[in-house]
Amino acid sequence: MLTLFLLICRKCVAFFIASLFIGFAMSAVYIDVNWMHNALHENSVTEVLQEIILVIIMGLFFWSSGKRPEQRGGLILIGGFYLCMLIRELDDIFDMISHGSWLWFALATTAICVFLSLRASTSTITGLTDFLQHRTWLMTATGLIIVLVFSRLIGMHQLWQHLMLDGYNRVVKNMAEEASELMGYCVCLLSTVLFLKETREKTN
Length: 204
Description:
The chain is mostly helical. The protein is 83% helix and 0% strand. The mean pLDDT is 89.
């Protein structure tokens, strides 16, 4: 009975911490709209926070790949995927080199990560299998769907033009799209931390 009670307490605490984290992260949208005067652009607090979250996720996977030889290849591929997402988010910086050049950097990153994973093919299969079979994969998939699908659909300007008619305001569309992306990245970060924590405990 005591064990079940402690389990319920742990789950409630985890829910509370996740709620605080997401609430804190989503306050970036409020800051941009109210304090930064609708400054939802490439250098907004929301955009910068998205990039910071991606750096943390990518760093956690790459760091873990050096600590877990049995999962190394798989973790490198996952980290490389998030690095490519970061490169896409930083497209305005790469545009200073050449418009659309982010794609070539992303392709180079993909090639390097695939090459490194092929050198450790067994750990690649093990790492990806462990990741996809873990319960946090559904969280990760949900976060990615929010970022890659939902945010794009909710950010369609045709939708907001029909909703606002002659009062169309692009800032509202940007707010909905960027807030959705930020939410998705937060879910991915939470699932990453949980996955690496739980799998570390099992491997130790």
